[in-house]
Amino acid sequence: MQLRLHIPADRMGDVVGDLGRRRGRVLGMTPTQRQTQVVAEAPLAELFGYAGQLRSLTGGRGSMTMSLDRYGRAPEGVTRAVLAG
To answer: What's the pLDDT at 63?
Structure first.
């Protein structure tokens, strides 16, 4: 999935760290006066509940949009876990 996040600059480290834990990857950042727009990608399976987590990380000041970017191969560990049931 492609994510477009609008987050306060002072919460940038928390949000980027959380994206990393969700196998996300930051593609770009555009700072504005009060917020930073972050463009990132992450697997959909890792994003369930992310809107609530983003609100928590930003004190209710962050927002996001999400759209399908592409399909990709899952890492071997994830594939094995799914197949094992």
So the answer is: 94
CB within 8 Å of 24: residues ≥ 6 apart:
3, 40, 41, 42, 46
Structure tokens at 36: 């930073």
| pLDDT of res. 85 | 79
Mean pLDDT taken over the chain: 93
Give start and end residues of each alpha helix (H) in the chain: 12-21, 50-58, 76-84
C-alpha 26, offset from chain centre:
8
Q: What's phi and psi for 21, nearest 5 deg? A: -65, -20
Look at residue 54 and tell me whether its pLDDT is greater than 90: yes
d(CA 41, CA 68): 10
Please name every residue paired with 65 in a beta bridge, in sequence order, or none if there are none: 4
